[in-house]
Design a protein that fits this description.
By secondary structure, the chain is an alpha+beta fold. It is built from 4 helices and 9 strands; from the N terminus they run E-E-E-E-E-E-H-E-E-H-E-H-H. 30% of the residues lie in helices and 35% in strands.
């Protein structure tokens, strides 16, 4: 089945949304797929190892046109985000790029693996529950 990962990224209020990774997935048991207005999107990856070995025909697309072929899904995603981060850096050095996460996007654990410092300033040091308690009760 032909599927996509969108690589949309916010830089401040601006959205860079013209790159995506297309691929064929042979083993559909490794993912959960959602039907979104006629498009099939990956909503969850159940087994990353099985998924990554059953992916083939991987292309990085710019405005829907293939610009590079890959044999490894992680390498394709990393290359796409590297290009986007360079675009973000050229437009502003102050704001940190924030990849969009959710249905149809690369999984968060992969983004944290590829770019460990990207979400560092967004993590709650004392944990989410304590942070919310602090907001609600102080």
């Amino acid at each position: 089945m032909d599927l996509y990962f969108y690589l949309d990224t916010y830089v401040g209020e601006y959205l860079i949304n013209f790159y995506m990774v297309s691929f064929k997935l042979l083993d559909l048991d490794s993912v959960e797929i959602t039907d979104f207005y006629g498009s099939k999107l990956i909503s969850n990856i159940l087994d990353w190892d099985t998924f990554s070995t059953s992916v083939g025909n991987i292309y990085l697309l710019e405005y829907g046109d293939p610009i590079q072929r890959f044999y490894n899904i992680e390498e394709a995603i990393k290359t796409g985000y590297d290009i986007i981060f360079e675009i973000a850096k050229s437009s502003t050095n102050v704001l940190k790029p924030r990849p969009v996460v959710g249905v149809g996007y690369p999984p968060l654990f992969l983004l944290k693996k590829l770019y460990p410092d990207l979400f560092e300033d967004m993590l709650f040091r004392q944990g989410l529950d304590e942070f919310l308690d602090q907001i609600l009760f102080t």
